[in-house]
Sequence to fold (408 residues):
Amino acid sequence: MDKNLKRMATMHRMQVTGLELFYKNGYYNTSIDEILKSLSLSKGAFYYHFQSKEDFFVSIVQNLIVRKVYSMLIEPIEGKENPFPVIEKCFENALETAEHNDMDYGFILSNFISEFNRRNTVISNYLMDIYKIWEVNLISILQKGKSDGFVDRHVDSEGVATYLISSYMGVRTLMVQGNCRNLRYKYMQQLRHYFNSLTQKEAV
Amino acid sequence: MDKNLKRMATMHRMQVTGLELFYKNGYYNTSIDEILKSLSLSKGAFYYHFQSKEDFFVSIVQNLIVRKVYSMLIEPIEGKENPFPVIEKCFENALETAEHNDMDYGFILSNFISEFNRRNTVISNYLMDIYKIWEVNLISILQKGKSDGFVDRHVDSEGVATYLISSYMGVRTLMVQGNCRNLRYKYMQQLRHYFNSLTQKEAV
DNA sequence: ATTTTTACCGACCACTTAGTCGGTAAAAAA
DNA sequence: TTTTTTACCGACTAAGTGGTCGGTAAAAAT
Fold:
């Protein structure tokens, strides 16, 4: 348990650099040699720790990508009270982070979902698991918002979650081509419009 | 002009099969050999007609992808009167077509935008041109809708266009993983909600 | 002190990749 | 009829690709 330290450290280094390059260039357009070169490690080291390129990527999904999505998009809304302002703030933050990151290559989750769609079902499933966690959390906060009187009773929480995730994924795809500030601004404004139409109307 | 017929026919055959495979497997994950094999053509034939893989793909973008996006998403709304029902019907149609196509690998435009993002600026630019045509058309129909009294005067047409494109791209990404019918239903319902909040309110 | 395990090296393998090039049969131009 | 052009063939190249494997130095276990 303690002697695994070195092993864990090396594996983690590989995963971090691996994710960096996979995110930047895409999975199919990134070779293991490339990753190894930028780590000054050898083939032997790689295949000592991982069974295959696919196995390697799965470990990246489960260790790094899950956490990234969680800390950026799930944790900030989990268990919170008034859904719309919370989600709004969360999205705004996420978009701002992307905007100020000149190494931004889009929303990591949707990028890989697109890349592996029907091309590698094993990896696709692991990615969709993350999507589902996100979705469940959105639905949950929306439902709670209904009982707390923040969200109109007639609102379809699942539908709203789908719509939110869709629009977020889409705008992140568009943002990579620049003009981020403007895109974010326009997106957030429309999001507020949309939320407005779902807010509990007091005294009909 | 007439003797080019054979040339055009072969090039077109290559482009059609090329797009099929690029769409299915991704650009970087599809080799020219693969395309040529499924056409029973040789390397010589390919490099006689096209300068490179990139040049080949650019020609596909300009000849086939433009038309696909245009006929599915632009032409049905171009010059029409009441924006929201028209856009709604157009999106509904597009999503239904995708749903009933078991060879659906997502929205062709956003798939490639993702794949080439920052990895190939030449191709990215050609793809973004298509996006811009779409955007301009949406903005234009929304503006017209304002003067015709269908759309609330305070609505930001550009913002709405961005939001529409984003959400459409996103939902198409999600749809590839199945449960399309449900996704489409939920998406369309929320789209209507959103449109409702933008519709001209009569007599304040 | 000896043996075993861990973590890594790097040469090597079979295969695929985009792209080149000399050739050629049929059609068109002269 | 001869020459030229068109449209294509397929062997070849150089540079990768994911993955294997025999080896090894240091650390840990015995």
Notes: The radius of gyration of chain A is 20 Å. Chain A has nine helices and no strands. Chain A has two domains: 1-50, 52-196. Residues 1-50 of chain A form a domain with the Arc Repressor Mutant, subunit A fold (CATH 1.10.10.60).
